[in-house]
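Sequence in, structure out.
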Amino acid sequence: MATTPSFPELLSLVDDRSAALRAAVATAPEHDAPLTAGAVARHQVKEAAVHAYDAQQTVGLREPVPAAVAVDGVAEFLTVSYGASGPWPHRPARVGRYAAEGSSWLLDLTPSGAVIARDAEESPAAAVHGSAGELLLALFGRIPLHRLRIEGSRALVEALLAWPSLD
């Protein structure tokens, strides 16, 4: 039977875990992700929309993710989720995402990581087209790629969706 640690043992455990967390944060790759309460709220809206989609699917509904939420969700996913994922492990490339609602994003994948392209001069090696909701749901693995129109390297799009490997 396990015993409850003593108070000094608990304090030592908290100190050890806090030091490990500080070390992990200090060595984490640089990223442009905002670290504010507003950023957390923004992220939660996207998460809630995806989970609402999941819940609707369980009862046979197919309501789209609201366009404004989806557009912001794609932007947030590309800049924060991919932006904080560390080095791109493959050959550098550019991927475009084009929402039917008019928004678009160019993502540069480099040895330093993923960043939103600041210029549009170079064409993407792959372009993914769909509604903003479809783009967002594909990023979360909720819909298959065949529901989107892909131009260029499908293998690159598949590699991007599989990155980062969390195994």
